[in-house]
Amino acid sequence: MSKESQNKFAEIPGILGMKGWLFAAAVIIFLHFTLQLGLNAYYFQILMFAGINITLAVSLNLVNGFTGQFSMGHAGFMSVGGYMSSYLTTTYFASNPDMLQNPIISGVIFFFALIAGGVAATLAGYVVGLPSLRLRGDYLAIVTLGFGEIIRVLLLNMNIVGGARGLSGIQPLTNFFWVFIFALLTVFCVWRVVHSAKGRVLLAIREDEIAGTSMGVNTTEGKVWAFSLGAFFAGIAGGLFAHYLTTLNPGTFDFNRSFEIIIMVVLGGMGSISGSIVAAIFLTLLKEVLRPLQQITGYDLRMIIYSLVLIGMMLTRPQGIFGTSEITSLFNYFKKRLKRGAP
Amino acid sequence: MTQIALKTEKLTIQFGGLKAVNEFDIEIKSGMIFGLIGPNGAGKTTVFNMLTGVYQPTSGSIIGFNKNLVGLKPFQITHAGFARTFQNIRLFKNLTVLQNLQVAMDQNPKHKKFGLLSTLIKTAKLLESEGEKTAECLSILKIFNLDSRAEEIASNLPYGDQRRLEIARAIATGSRLLLLDEPAAGMNSKETASLMHTIKDVRKIFDATVLLIEHDMKLVMGICERIAVLDYGVKIAEGTPSEIQKNPRVIEAYLGKAATNDQAR
After folding, report:
1. Cβ(B247)–Cβ(B230) below 8 Å
2. What domains sit in chain B, N to C, each tagged with a CATH number?
3. How far apart are CA B74 and CA B62, in angstroms?
4. Which of A64, A87, B50, B262 has minimal CB crowding within 10 Å?
């Protein structure tokens, strides 16, 4: 084998260097300051939801797409994180209202509240991960669906977070920077994990659990691990969502929300991070683009067209927009074509 | 003194009222190619499943490389040096040939495992270890003549190559005892002949011990140094290929009582 082709294998496929990620972070900081100047509030809101949805879809893809464990409880993890961080910030700022004046201090507190929400969701993910050791396929889907409902009903009956009235008066701390930094962090973590030895454990679980375990893969550990990491980012997304809406009620995180995230993952391609990103943006936009249709026609055709798009997509391309490939392989493809000198 | 790779004593498993395997004893010396044969339903694969931790034996002991293996989970048994292939091929179908090996190589006890933090930062040590692992995978693939197909999706390989890839993957785990469950199933005679060479090479190059289940008598008699015969869960004979061929109980198990007078093959 030639030296060159050996190098090609030695390189872990498609990993962007640290510089690339830092550059992306710098772009987010730059946009944070420029977008606030001139962007229409409505467009800004769509942008924020798209960012939160990227975090949700990419983290769910880790569980559903890469590990092959069909989880339907992502909204449940989101609500754990959302409630946890909102509870922390509301109680803190209620006793220290002057801290809100300082954007840096309130930002730091917000950051830690989000992380706390993520950790709470991770614990929940661990708890759900444990039964998932025994269950697979549809059974697991039902368990996770049930988990989401349990969380919702628990929150409905917890007076400390407002019960059915919900939690209101949450400080609007979420801004462009936080949403997209965490989206970037999610993409970064999932990307690096998936393209590593740890990620190969997850892929082995997806492909064939029995073969995996007889190759020495601790499938139990791998599954719980994927669940917990996925839940962590869902918890963070929940926190960002809560501090954007400023009110929460248990109904916000019903199973429809879980399905919305699943649709993004499936549409983008199970096992494709770029696919999840594209689908998250596309579906967030699609819902808004169709909104004026109601004013024109007088009927609420929005959800009908939305679902027709999904049905059409699944009929023509059931593996999703990207399948299991990434956008980087597209670059590589063009690079190869250029090298060969083909038109 | 040669080391004992595997020793079972009175290995028994009971499913309800059925004793699928009853007091099964074998002793395999390190470096040996050992065959396990028997008619359909004799319990050969059940023995494999007990040895690899898929089933827990009802009673009896399994000692692999001087370590008790009863009660361990399948992945722990792999870490202890046992790796298997499957009767119906179980590759990671949508992964590349190289990735199939990398999954196994990651679990090889001689390679260090890295935590989440070093995975995220991609430390220099991690990259170095990844490079080493990949190089080792490629060298194993080369022995199996699969290196030119390293980047192909495993399910696109021809059948014979898939079988061989499964063996390569088992070796990548760093195991010293390979349990091959019908490695020649579905192969034509040419592929079987090349498989026989592969198994012999593997033993020589990787200093491995092989325990194989096989129905293809040409392969079994051709490469095994010792053979055990299982019938209705009981070991009815053990010995060298020529001893087994002459053993009247074996002939009876395969061909029935009336045929005992004929010489098989």
Report:
1. no
2. 4-94+174-264 (3.40.50.300)
3. 13
4. B262
